[in-house]
Amino acid sequence: MLRPKGAASKKASIPPDINSTRGVQSWKEAAAWLRARGIEDIECITPDLAGVPRGKMMPTSKFTSNTSLALPSALYRHTISGEYPEESGQFRYDSRDSDIKLMPDLSTLSVVPWETDPTAQVICDIITTDGDDVPYTPRNVLKNVLKLYEAKGWKPVVAPEIEFYLVAVNEDPDYPLHPPKGRSGRSILGGQGYSIAGINEFDELIDDIYHFSEKQGLEIDTLIHEEGPAQLEINLRHGNPIELADQVFLFKRTIREAALKHGIYATFMAKPMQAQPGSAMHIHQSVIDLETGKNIFSNPDGSASKEFFSFIGGMQKYVPSALVMMAPYVNSYRRLTPDMSAPVNNAWGYDNRTTAFRVPVSDAAARRVENRLPGSDCNPYLALAASLACGYLGIIRGIEPTAASEGTANEGSVDLPRGLLEAVSLMEAEPALAEVLSQEFIGLYAGVKRGEFETFMQVISPWEREFLLLNV
Fold it and tell me: In this structure, which CATH number among 3.30.499.10, 2.40.30.10, 3.30.590.10, 3.40.225.10 belongs to the domain 147-437?
């Protein structure tokens, strides 16, 4: 029988509530949980490098028996479009395409509420056939960063904010996207930031999002309408980075399924519509001392600590080199352009939304840093890993930040990579990132991103047909 590491010697002292959707710890509890709900099938899923759910589906009886769930290692070496890139730099293939194994994290077991037959899902870690963690897989990359904090007696706390667009069904990729019609029968316009009427246009869809989320044990803090037409934002409660990355992973799937039920699309593209704001995944971050439970960003007298400033300094120094993990596609850099409501700098400031790193107004216990650079198209595990790794390097190396920006920081030059290949090169050239993320991961990730750029270059865009066809 498949068992999480240590499961044979650990037993939950209190069985999970039979009506709960989360919290299962042992295989005995899992079997009881599945029987109580009459679950027929289970989806064993894990994020690939893009954050796309991959895995296997099976009957419940097979899941709880002595079944080995294997996947080919090539799963982590293909692009978002399914191609396998040429070997380059440190990117290499496993010549045997050997098996790697899905190891269910039973604490993530939950129902799949949009399925007609009783179905459950469980998020899996990836291990070798010898039982070792595979270091380049997204969940393990984040776990390894968290181990660095734990070794120092710290625990990061994060709270993601996820923006996305609702768009009308688009069957031909050559045609631009446009907003769907709401309950009024009209397409919603832009400039509806925090509009309750904008949310009400999609009441039934939003009800389904809440319903699906509740069934999975996913907790939404707030939901708002953003500036773009039919652009929404969901804020999640702060917590453990692995648990929050899991929630974002599941939320994306949930929102897409809820939208499809209503005959529209939900998209997490960073820049889905020309001349409209892009979609971000802002990350609020703080760090707790494991022994005292106190926020290390604040001194006992309530003032900002040296660790707080060094965390910001690390973000400023290293995030530009790690940006490709927060802006992973060609489309991502269309969002990170001037005059598009996104930061194009590595500045920081107090309650300043024009900076990449904003310090929100808060009391000393809640002092935190908001990273406003990641796009909603990012893999949440990798974006969190990169952001926390950069802050960690800042604290460990005592890096001093610049002075806080008090005015508009988005004017003038762009301080970040302008495109995917530049961002990949910066990541490969920064040895500190290899120390905290592993050279194996960086080599693999860089190779896949180069492959994606090559597939993009095979496509002729409308701009080229418009301005080059008859003019050159």
Answer: 3.30.590.10
Answering whether pTM is above 0.85, one says: yes
Quick: pLDDT tens for 121-175: 999 999 998 999 999 999 999 999 999 999 999 999 999 999 999 999 998 888 8
Structural domain boundaries in the chain: 7-134, 147-437
Question: Domain 7-134 adopts which CATH fold?
Answer: Ubiquitin-like (UB roll) (3.10.20)
3-class DSSP string for the chain: CCCCCCHHHCCCCCCCCCCCCCCCCCHHHHHHHHHHHCCCEEEEEEECCCCCEEEEEEEHHHHCCCCCCEEEHHHHHCCCCCCCCCCECCECCCCCCCEEEEEECHHHCEECCCCCCCEEEEEEEEECCCCCECCCCHHHHHHHHHHHHHHCCEEEEEEEEEEEEEEECCCCCCCCCCCCECCCCCECCCCCCCCHHHHHCCHHHHHHHHHHHHHHCCCEEEEEECCCCCEEEEEECCECHHHHHHHHHHHHHHHHHHHHHCCEEEECCCCCCCCCCCCEEEEEEEEEECCCCCECCECCCCCECHHHHHHHHHHHHHHHHHHHHCCCCCCHHHHCCCCCCCCCCCCEEECCCCCCEEECCCCHHHCCEEECCCECCCCHHHHHHHHHHHHHHHHHHCCCCCCCCCCCCCCCCCCCCCCHHHHHHHHHHCHHHHHHHCHHHHHHHHHHHHHHHHHHCCCCCHHHHHHCCCCC
pLDDT digits (tens, 9 = 90+) for 321-331: 999 999 999 99
